[in-house]
C-alpha cells in the first residue's frame, strides 16, 4: 500500500507507515494473547469476566458484569455459559431478589484466574522488558497522544 502512496508527502507516507506498524504490533499481541489464553480454555472476554469477578470479591450479577465491562447482557450471558460449562463459575439465585442471579468463581475458577493472571503478567512484562525507561516514557506519551486524537472521535454519519 505504501507504494500506492508515492504521490503524497513524505510526512503522510510516514504517518501511514507508523499507523500500519502500530496495527501490526497490536495484531501480533492479540494473536499471541489468544493462543496463550486458549491453553486455559479461555478467550480474552472470558478472562476479563473472571478478573472482574475476582476484583469484586467474587460475586456479581450478570447486569453488574455487563455494566462494569461496557458490554451487553447478551454478550455476558454467552461468556458465562462457557465459563460455567468449564466449571470456572457458578450461577446462584440472589437470596434478596429471586429475579436476579449471582455469579461467583468456583474454587477451580479462582485457581485458574490466579494462575493465568500471573502467567499473563509475566508475558506482558516480557513484551516491554527490552525498552529503556526513556523508550517506555516515549511510548506512553505517544499512545496517549494517539488515543486522544480528535480523528479517533466517532463522527455521526453524513446524511446526504
Compressed to H and E, one letter per element, the order equals: HHEHHEEHH
How many helices? The count is 6
Radius of gyration: 21 Å
What is the percentage of strand-forming residues?
5-15%
Order of strands, widest sheet: 1-3-2
**First-to-last CA distance:** 30 Å
**Quick one: biggest sheet?**
3 strands, antiparallel
Summarize model confidence as the mean pLDDT: 91
Tell me, what's the shape? extended
Structural class: mainly alpha
DSSP summary, beta strand count: 3
Helix content: 55-70%
Uncertain runs are: none
What does this structure look like?
The protein is mainly alpha-helical. Helices cover 62% and strands 11% of the residues. Helix 2 crosses helix 5.
What is this entry, summarized?
The chain has 160 residues and is mainly alpha-helical. It has helices spanning 10-38, 44-55, 62-69, 73-85, 107-128, 133-147, and strands at residues 59-60, 89-94, 97-105.
Question: Could you give the topology of this structure?
Answer:
Blueprint: H1 10-38, H2 44-55, E1 59-60, H3 62-69, H4 73-85, E2 89-94, E3 97-105, H5 107-128, H6 133-147
Antiparallel strand pairs: 1-3, 2-3
Helix pairs in contact: 2-5, 3-4
Descriptive labels:
about 160 residues, three-stranded antiparallel sheet, about 10% strand, single chain, 6 helices, extended
